[in-house]
Amino acid sequence: MTAKWKERLSRNTLAWALLLPSLLFLMLFTYYPMLKTAWLSMYQSDLATPEPIFVGLDNFTILFQDPVFQKVFSNNIWFAIGTVPTSMALAFIMALFADKALAGRSFSRVAFFYPNMIPMIAVANIWLFIYTPQYGLLAQLAKWVGQSADMNMLGHPDTVMWAMIVMMIWKEAGYFMIFYLAGLQNIPKDLYESASVDGIGTWKVTTRITIPLTMPTTLFVAVVALTNAFKLVDHLWIMTKGGPDNASSLLLYHIYDTAFSFYDQGMAATMTVIMIALLLVLSSLQFFGWDRKIHYQ
Fold it and tell me: Residue ranges of the ABC transmembrane type-1 domain (predicted)?
């Protein structure tokens, strides 16, 4: 064996040895549970069956005909549509302000990011107080402007999802702002100086320089925001528990409810497979669809 091959073998062995702990964790806590869930989705496993019974794809057929699943799935799609674009746009605007502000720059950054530092359970309790009829902050503001204080945002099917969307935007916009702020600070300043010398206005600078050069950040934030829209459900346990009449129930909460309240592990595994597949497809479409339009340099 030549010295070149010995050096390459030694380098590769060290690299794999360093990667081995992470790979073990991934295998034990990510890939094995995913495979186990896919296997369980093809079995009927509930309180009526002490031993799982193989049913093939029947769980998927039953699930797609279930009106509760259809309602929950629709809720999650609308929740993602309501939170992802708005929180990203607000985060971008906040980052522009925090990057350009001359006075109070540090304060503005901390103030924008602060909601993300609060645990989700605490955030849910804060907004539960805001939405409380008669005594909540929103009710007091309504009373102050001469409106009825009996509004029950969380108790009405037509308003509960909007209440959840507003709360999630408030929670996540500051988190996404950090990524946009990092992206803005990586843009060469001489581009802005050249635009200023040429007399180009702020709007054209933003649309022709800032937005195109922050597209890699936008792609990353979009994938994270979309994933969060399907996996953040702590607030539902505190605020609504999916009610009223499943109007605020989201897919992951419905999976939890099916598995640990109704003890139907087979159907919960089926919904998990659908959610994972959906997130993989949407993330792939985002990545491969936007990648050609992104300026990395």
Answer: 73-286
> pLDDT (tens digit, 9 = 90+) per residue, 198-217?
888 888 888 888 888 898 89
CA distance 175 to 112: 8
- Is the CB of residue 124 less than 8 Å from the CB of residue 112? no
What residues in the chain have per-residue pLDDT under 50?
Answer: none
Which of the 8 DSSP states describes residue 27?
A: I
Burial 59-88 (b: 16+ CB within 10 A, else e): bbeebeeeeebeebbebbeebbebbbebbb
3-state percent helix, strand, coil for the chain, nearest multiple of 5: 75, 0, 25
Q: What percent of the chain has pLDDT over 90?
A: 40
Does the structural domain 67-292 have CATH classification 1.10.3720.10? yes
* 35-37-41-42 Cα dihedral, nearest 10 degrees: 40
Distance, in Å, from the CA atom of 206 to the CA atom of 99, rounded to the nearest integer, reads 13
Q: Which residues contact 142 (CB under 8 A, 6 or more apart)?
A: 148, 149, 151
The domain segmentation of the chain, as residue ranges, is 3-41, 67-292
- Cα-to-chain-centroid distance, residue 76: 11
Query: What is the distance between the alpha carbons of residues 226 and 116, in angstroms, rounded to a whole number?
Result: 17
Helix (H) or strand (E) holding 203, with range, is: helix 202-205
